[in-house]
Write a structure and sequence with these properties.
Pfam families: CBP_BcsN (PF17038). By secondary structure, the protein is an alpha+beta fold. The protein is 18% helix and 24% strand. It is rod-shaped, with a radius of gyration of 50 Å.
Length: 308
Amino acid sequence: MQTIQQFRSIHAPAAQAVRFVFMATLVGAMLGACASTRDLPPREARIVAPVDAMIVPPPGGPAIVNVVSTTFPNAIQQEISLATEARSTGENKITIVKFVGDGGDGSDAALRDIPFTQINLTEEALAAWPDSGMAVSPYYVQNDYGPFGYAIGRPANGDACIYAWQRIEPSLRPTSTVDGGAISMRLQLCRQGATEQQLVEVMYRLRLSHSVHSPRPAPAAIGRTAVSIRPVGAEGFANVIDIPAPVTRSTAAPQPAAAPVVVPVSIAPPPGAPIVPSPSGSSSSAATTVPRPPTASVVVPRPSSGAQ
């Protein structure tokens, strides 16, 4: 027993020193992580090159017109203006925010990270595309980065409009360190004569730049990444607003008037009429024979004998 106590008394200071070094290292790592996530120098809004956009539209458009980037202590926000040929009042653009730490509470210059559950997204959609009759999709969909939602509008000018939103949660590396913060993205896009499927397809083909968020391996399961789930049912793509099929009226071709039917009429000559031979000189067997008057002689009375 005395030997054990002597051993503890000799090695206790060393054990305490090891624990102190371990705790100091852990606290330093945590503080370093916190400092690194809020180490962005704030910068006012400025125009950057399209190649510096944090999200890239699909090939074939819509094309990037310009990119306005604003840096906060805890986030980078970009408004990416897109080309448009639509007639609706509004702007084609993508708004993306990448947080490098927790969202601020509004008491400092840090940008607030507000969950979608606390935002009226229907009002946002109506504000993005006024007088377009936006309707929120009830279908569950997801692209390579996770689930997203959208609303569709069809103004009277022939445009088709979409307002889509998505939140990409931070991933965990094998070392259990957080790979950056959350990413919040909104797309508002109007196109002349487009279908719902063409507008929704843009959300499936958007790509984050590798410097922002590297693609992750995707298990094929609902709610996981890299599994696209489209609003497609047994009857094909499920529209939020059904477009009535055009009514085709068939015009019957007018029927030609029936030719008049000529009925031959045989007229018999009256009794005693002369028989006129045909111009050909041949008598027809169907000629009408007119009976001759009776041949009885007419008796003329003799004059009276008393006549002078």
